[in-house]
Structure formats: C-alpha cells, structure tokens
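Field log, afternoon session.

UNIT: design team B
ACTIVITY: writing a sequence onto a fixed backbone
BACKBONE:
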C-alpha cells in the first residue's frame, strides 16, 4: 500500500499553497489530490469558442506582506497583471485565473480525478479511499475543500474529532453563486477595463467583459449574481431567463452567439471562522483549512483569494511542526 506523510485533499489555492509550503521545507512524501480534471478549484476559467472566461474568482487584492512578496514574483514571471484599482490594486491572471493555479502547482505531485470518499483512522495512521476503490496510507491529512464538503466526507468516515473543533466547523456557512456566461458577436459597451460593479440591478454583483479584461479573443461576458439572490433562486428552472432579464439593458442581445450557466453550490462563506485552520483530531494529524478560515487579525473579514492563500500556508506550517 502506498504511504504518504501528508495527503492534501483539494487542489484549490489553499491546497496548492499548503503543498508549495511543504515542498519549500524539503518535504517530498506528500500527495495533493482533487476530484476535478484540473487544479484550481474556484480559480476557474472556461473556454468558449475562441475565448476564455473566468467564472470563479475574477481578481484578488493583497493586504499582507507575505502575499505581496509572492505577487511581486508572479508579476515578474508575467503570470498576473494589475487589472484595475488604485490605491488598492486588483490583480488578475494574464491567461485566466486557472492558469495561475496551474503555474503554482507545477512540480507538485498531484492526483486529479480523485475524489476522496472515506477516511478511516487506524492505530498506525489514516487510510484514504477514493471513488475508484484505491486506498493508501497517510500519517496526516489536510482537508481544504469548502466546509459543507468537509462535513459530508467526515460523515462517511471513521475518524476521531474533537467536539469543540467540530462545533466551530459546523458554524461556517457557505452561499451559492450563479454566473451567466454570454458569448457576443460584437464588442460590448461595458467600461474600458471590462469591469462593472456599480449601479447594477438588485441581485447582480458584478459584470465582466473578458475581451476588455485582456484574456479572451472573443467577446465573453460573465454576470455574477450575489449570494442572497442565488440562494433564493437556487435550483429553479428559469434562472437563466431571470439573469438575462436583470442585465437586459446592458447588452445588444441580438448579437448573442451562445450562453451558459455556472452554478457554484459553495461559492463564498457567508459566515467565516477567525482561526486560520482547525486541528480536528487535536494531535495535528487531521487538519481543516480553506478560504473560510481567516487569521484573527484579518482586516477584510471575508472569504477570498488571500484568505485561502494564508490558510493553506498556516495549516502547512502547523502540519510540519
Ligand atoms: C463565483 C465566485 C467568484 C469569486 N470571486 C472572487 C474574487 O473576485 N476575488 C477573490 O478574492 N475571491 C473570489 N472568490 C473566492 C475564491 O475563489 C476562493 O476564496 C478561493 O479560490 C478558494 O480556494 P480554496 O482552495 O479554499 O477552495 P476551492 O478552490 O474550492 O478548492 C477546493 C478543492 O477541493 C476539491 N474537492 C472537493 N471535495 C473533494 C473530495 N472529496 N476529494 C477531492 N477533492 C475534492 C474541489 O474540486 C476543489 O478543487 C470567488 C468565488 C466564486 C465561486
């Protein structure tokens, strides 16, 4: 049976950052797994015709020196650029947000299409089971998926957890988000930088033109509905129509080539925890991290790219203590 010191479940930004940190410390016997076909999780970019559209995170902000140091490196590598915003820059990836995740995960042993379905604790460590009936041994496990998915996995698992930490975990709440993706045959009249988040109809959080953003040859637009609207309309058949009605005045719909809808069941945490990770087992062997886990002094107080980055980093430091 294969044996790893650490298995990191979830190759979103938290998991990738944790893996990079372990790698930097000279550790080699760890595995990063994700159920998806690519790394990145909510750093997601979709190809449509001759274009690309980010339909998860659009940009990120930087409040800590730690992330800023990385950002300076990513800028030099030309992986990201300053999209808009002064004095607080909004950075975005030059090739779509998913490409940044791919750059960051390069060189890290990763198993994709691997959904962890059960974790069992034995006296000599954990056994992880995936959806293809593979099983391996791991001394430690770091879970980085959205908290409802962590809870689902724990329910199917046989592990010991500290009651007080479990209670904290259950206090975190996630909200869904609907994103409409539209391909137009001609340019839009959105602002020059392609970003609009002011004076929008109720329920619409943000509208982005990816051609103007600089990542797409074709005119691709993402319309982000806010958490409240998405929760109220979750699972309804006519969501596509409702979103189009909301932004009707912004576009020339006779130029519409195609449309798609992305539904994020767990998009952003509505209720976060002000601890950068949770030690569920109490002995550092089963730890949970992710964007909903904020440092105590977090200035923004909300779930985002930077909170995922810091949580992954702090959890990895704790794991290797
Ligand atoms: C629509 C949308 C817009 C956003 N906009 C912004 C923005 O503009 N700026 C910003 O800063 N942030 C934004 N965010 C938030 C940002 O994307 C997240 O905070 C961050 O990417 C979360 O990273 P993560 O690693 O914590 O989680 P995730 O990216 O969700 O990674 C978790 C991974 O776990 C995997 N997984 C789940 N279950 C299993 C399992 N059982 N086995 C194996 N793998 C599993 C998933 O496939 C996923 O890849 C947005 C998010 C969404 C959804």
């Amino acid at each position: 049976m294969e044996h790893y010191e650490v298995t990191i479940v979830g190759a979103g930004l938290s998991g990738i950052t944790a893996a990079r940190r372990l790698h930097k410390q000279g550790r080699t016997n760890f595995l990063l797994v994700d159920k998806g076909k690519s790394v990145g999780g909510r750093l997601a970019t979709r190809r449509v015709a001759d274009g690309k559209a980010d339909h998860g995170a659009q940009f990120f902000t930087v409040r800590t020196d730690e992330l800023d140091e990385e950002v300076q490196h990513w800028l030099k590598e030309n992986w990201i650029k300053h999209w808009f915003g002064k004095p607080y820059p909004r950075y975005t990836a030059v090739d779509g947000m998913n490409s940044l995740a791919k750059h960051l995960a390069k060189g890290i042993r990763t198993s994709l299409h691997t959904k962890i379905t059960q974790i069992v604790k034995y006296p000599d460590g954990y056994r992880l089971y995936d959806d293809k009936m593979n099983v391996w041994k791991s001394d430690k496990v770091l879970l980085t998926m959205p908290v409802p998915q962590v809870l689902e996995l724990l329910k199917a698992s046989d592990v010991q957890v500290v009651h007080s930490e479990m209670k904290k975990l259950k206090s975190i709440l996630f909200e869904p988000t609907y994103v409409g993706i539209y391909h137009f045959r001609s340019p839009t009249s959105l602002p020059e930088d392609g970003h609009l988040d002011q004076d929008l109809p109720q329920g619409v959080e943000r509208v982005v033109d990816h051609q103007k953003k600089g990542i797409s040859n074709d005119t691709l637009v993402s319309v982000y509905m806010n958490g409240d609207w998405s929760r109220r309309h979750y699972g309804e058949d006519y969501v596509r129509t409702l979103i189009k009605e909301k932004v009707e005045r912004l576009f020339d719909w006779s130029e519409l080539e195609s449309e798609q809808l992305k539904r994020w069941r767990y998009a952003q945490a509505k209720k976060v925890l002000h601890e950068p990770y949770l030690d569920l087992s109490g002995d550092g062997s089963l730890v949970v991290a992710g964007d909903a886990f904020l440092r105590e002094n977090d200035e923004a107080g909300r779930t985002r790219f930077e909170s995922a980055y810091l949580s992954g980093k702090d959890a990895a430091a704790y794991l290797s203590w």
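LOG NOTE: The chain has a mean pLDDT of 96.
NEXT ACTIVITY: expression trials, pending approval
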